[in-house]
Amino acid sequence: MPRKYRDFTFESAGRWRFYRNKTLELSEALSSVGSEVPATHLLSERQEIAASQHSHVCRAVLSNGGEALSVYLKGMAFKSPRDAIKQQLGKSRAIKAFEAEQLLQSLGFTTPTTLLTGWRQRLFYKDSFFTLSAALSDYDDLYTTVAQLGEQTNSQKRAFIEQFAEIIARMHRKNIGHGDLRAGNVMCRHAGGWQFAFIDNERTRQYIKLPENIRIKNLVQLNLLLSPVISRTDRQRFFNHYSRFCYGQTNKELLGKVIAKTRKRLKIMLAKEKIEATDLWL
Description:
This protein has 282 residues and is an alpha+beta fold.
C-alpha cells in the first residue's frame, strides 16, 4: 500500500505511479500520458540544466489552473545495479528527497515545493523516478550571493554571515544533517532580512542526536566555498556565531576538527587540480 502524505494524493496513469500535490490541478490531463513522465507534455519553455551524472534536470513553465508556474523537472537514473536493487526494496532517491523536504518544511525551513513525484511501474519493477517541483522565487545560490557581498558594506556582509550561521545552527539544533550542504544547494534572498532555502535533500535526515561527523561534514562543505570576498575573519565570525547558538560559546575543539578536515579536503582538491594553489586559504 502506498504511504499517505499530508496534502498529497496517490494516483496512477498508465504505468506511472505518483504522489500529486493537491494544489496541482492536472488530474484529467495526466490520465492520458503515455511513455513520458507525467506532465512532461504540459511543459513549455524547457531549458536543460547542468546536473550530476545520474540525474537529468530541466527548467520549464507549467500552466496550473491558468497560472504559469516556473518548475524544475528532475529525473533520476540508477547509479549502479546495486542501487537499482536498493530502490526496488526500499525508498527511492526521489521519495527520500520528498520526505526530507516535508520534514524541513514542518520544522520551519524553506525548500522547493514538490508538485509531483513518482516512478514507472512494470510488473514488480520500478524505474524512471522523477520529481516535479515549483521553482523558488527570487532566490540565488550561495555562490552568487557571496559574490554580490563584495558590493555591500561591512555591516551588511556581517549581517548576512550572522543570519546564515543562525539558520545552519538552528538546523543542527533540530538534529538535522543536510546530505550535501555545498554552496550550490543553499539558496538565498534578501527581503527585509536574509532568507535561506535548501535543495537536493535526498540524503538529508533527522537524527535522535546529530552525529559529530555529520556536523563537521556540513561545516566543512560550507568552508570549501572559495571566494576573495570571504576573509578568514568572516569565516571565524560565522563559526563563532554558529557555535554560540549551538553551545553557548565558541567550541574550540570543534573548530580544530573543522579546520583540519577542511585543510585535508583542500589539499585533495589541489592534487586533483580542481583548485589553484592560490585558493589554499588555510
